[in-house]
Every structure is written in structure tokens, then in C-alpha cells.
Amino acid sequence: MNLTDLQIAKATKMQPITQIASKLGISEDILRPYGKYTAKLPLKLINPEQMKGKKLILVTAITPTAAGEGKTTVSIGLSEGLNRIGVQTTVVLREPSLGPVFGMKGGAAGGGYSQVLPMESINLHFTGDFSAVEKAHNLLAALLDNHIHSQKNTLNIDPRKIIWKRVMDMNERALRDIVIGLGGSAQGVPRESGFDITAASEVMAALCLSNSLMDLKEKLGNIIVGYTHQDEPVRANQLKAHGAMTALLKHAIMPNLVQTIEGNPAIIHGGPFANIAQGSNSIIATKMGLSLSDYVVTEAGFASDLGGEKFLDLKCQYGGLKPDVAVIVATIRALKSHAGTPLSNLKEPNPSAVHTGLANLDKHIENMRHFTLEPVVAINRFNTDSIEEIEIVRNHCKQVGVKVELCEAWEKGGEGCEQLAETVREVAEGGFSNFTPLYHFDWSIEQKIDTIARKIYGAAEVEYSVKAKQQMRIFSKIGLDKLPVCIAKTQYSLSDDPKLSNRPSGFTIKIREFDIAAGAGFIIPIAGTIMRMPGLPSAPAAELIDIDEDGNITGLF
Asked: pTM, whole model, 2 decimals?
């Protein structure tokens, strides 16, 4: 009988978190336990001197299907494999959002025999970090509306130009666009507003791009909430909100220590989306991992054109990080999907479709080489993959000069990743990479966008709407044009059109408008239609989740 992820997790005997901490040299008196199997790690554990010479491994992927290609599972399995071959390694991941957990994708704690534990806790609330981000974000929204209502709007804020919405950690399409302040003058000023999902909050992005508590406070103070009647930006520090917001995040800024199925350390922290934000765990968590272990394995959301590019251009530049290897996760099903194979037929052998889909893999290999990073392809194996299909990918990678290994982390845990671990260590220790960002922050906005669009997406040109051009002039006027760019686009294509699969060419990236995350420290060019508040599918995963009178949860995956 095949066990579910939850059954496998429950069958695993976990070690007390104090034992996991001791493997990293952390004494019990420094640890901040959250129960028996989870702990917060104080920021004083970050040591720049101890980070020197450590190896950082980025796990990215080819363009994914809707189900995802298993980057988290591969990341955990690779860390297990590295520990098995004698390399002290910590996997550092993002926290799951309740929206996907209850929606279509399910949890984000890995899968099969490649999971982080306690799986139920990690997927459901965990240590309350998401709740703290939500409260800090909504406190700013409340102070903003209170200023207009109770403080006679001394900042001269134009209610029509407020851009700060509220957030909640749930997929709820009914709250995307709402009207607030109805019911008379005592209820505030009526205006249009809405909700985003918490993972899309700028507070979450700022938390994950901060280097310290005071850095976070400064970033929160720089958040732009709206504009005056004279089009001057209004920031959170003008509302005197950033101190209280930071106080709410006092514990949330500390990374969370948990364990893998095989009893190795895992650090989980933050959860920004990758199609509208940077899509990776916090700078603080990554630096902490590098301070405490020899290798850190971390993943970035979606493929190399989204989370991968943003990890390298935003997070690495802001955090002074330098990755040594890029692992590109590929699946046979995704390659067949890029050849136009219908979802219902992806489990059937189709060597010809795999051949066609290799063009997408080639682009992601090329993308990593744009950053002077040496890639290693990891074939995340599913039981429906044929030997012939796998060999097609192996042979192709050898032809293009890229190391490739099979990953069987879901079925075998670290044992199924030992050869991948050996290859990753060989590349990391061999000095094949010399990480170089794609652009410098002081380039113009157009130059930064054009570089990403042409080099990473493969676009022929970039086109801006009249509104986008007007916004770029405003950014230059208020001194925000030197911020990096975090392009928001579909995850299902290298282009901004989700219907253009495989490796499209000759297309135009259309920037219709910009959002601004001045606090987090980036500009968001919006290409296509991006959903900041997803909706639930017709058959939500939440319908499968249940609990009995003894508190036993079922249905999580």
C-alpha cells in the first residue's frame, strides 16, 4: 500500500529540537523552543566570519505545470543526500501559505520520504509568522484610515490614490475588490479597497529582504501607502506606524528550526510569492544557515525566469550572497507538457514529446549561465516515467555539457539523492561558478526590464503602456528609479502569455503598469494579469482535510 505524505510524516519518530540544534552547535540556553519539535533562532547566531567559505546551492526549475515540479522535495532530498556523504548541510525553505494548502497545490513541506517535520504544524499556522505579518500589514491599513477619519487628514492624502490594501492568508476571491467606510460618517471615509493574500504583502517581502530588526523597521517606514492630492508619496513612517509594526514582527523575524525525516536540520522562514515578489526565504535565514553549516540548500519559487532570477538579482545583491551551484529541477511530465501533451496524457510514455520539451530545459540552463552559475540538472523521477524518456534527458544534457542526475527523493529520501549530492559537491568545490548579477541597481528602469526580458525570457522587445510610462516618470521624480525590478508575470510561460509554452521566441513583453514596494526595496513591472488574491478551485483541498476527536488530522498533502 502506498502511504500518503501525512502517513509517512506521522510514522517518523522525531528527535527533540534540542538534539537537532546541537548538530548545529546551538546550545539549549540560546534556543527559543516552540513546543518539543520547533524552535526560533535568535539573530545573534548569524556570524559573517563563519559564513566565509561556505557553499550556497540554489534549487530552481524548468517552467512548471500547475502541480509544480517538486523543488521543495528535491531541495530536502539533496540536503539529506549531502549529509549522507559527509557534508554538513542545512536546507533553508519558505513557509507554506494557507491559501495553497487549502486550495489546489496542497502543503509545502516536501513529499514522500523527503519532508520537513512536524509536517502538520508547518502547513497549518506553524509559529504564527504569517499571522504576525498579516497583523502588521493590517495595522498600517487601520492607522491609514484612522488618520483620514479621526486626525482630519493632516497629510492631505487623496482617498482615491490609496494603494495599501488589507491582507489575509486565505484564497478568497470575494474580497479582491470591496468598498469600505459605508454606513455613515462614524464608519470612516467611503472608498474602494480590497484584500491581497498575505504572501503577497509588502511586509512579507520586506521581512525577507531585511538584514536585521532595525533594517526591517526602516523598510517598513519606507512603505508607500498612497499619494497626496499633489501626487506626493505618503509613507508609513509619516503615519508613525513602523515602530508598532516592527514590534508585532519581533518574533516573526527569527527563523524557525525544524528537522527533516532523516533527522537533519532544516530552517524555514518567510513566504513571499514568486510571481509578484522575490519568492524565496529570508536573507536572515539563509545567512543563519551559512553561519551554522558547511552547505546550505535553498529553493526559489517557480522557474529560473521568476524565483530564480529574483533570488539572484534581488536577494543576493541585497544580502551579499554568492551561490555556488544552480540545480535545475526537471520532470518528464513538464517536458511533455511543453510539447503540447494534454494533462490527461502526461502519464503515458511519449519520447517524442520529451525531445520537443527539451527546448524549455535548454533555456533555463542558458538562464543560469547568464549569471555565470554552473547548473546541474536534477530529473525528479515519477513512477510513470519510462527509462527511455529519462535516457533522452540524460543524453541531451551530456550533449550540451551539463551534468545531470536522477533524483528519487520522494520514494527513497536521501538515499535517492546521493549521486546528485556527489555531483553538486563536485561542482561546488570545483569552483566552476563565479556568480555575477544580471544588472546593477543604478541602471535605468527600462534598461533593467529590457535586460531581463531579452536575456531571461527570450523576448524580442518590451512595450510600455501610456500609464506605465507615466509611472516611470513619477518614480524618477521621487528618486525610486534606482531600485531593482521584480517583474510580475505568469509562471506558466517564459513569456507573459501562459498559452505560449516550451521556448517561445519573437514575442513582446507588455508592461501595462507598475506597483511599488518602496519599503521592501523594489519596483514591480506588471506584465499580463497577475492575481494577488487567488480563488479556491472547484474542488478545494480543504474538503479532504478532517480531524477526529483525538485531534488526529487527515487529508493533508
From this structure: 0.96
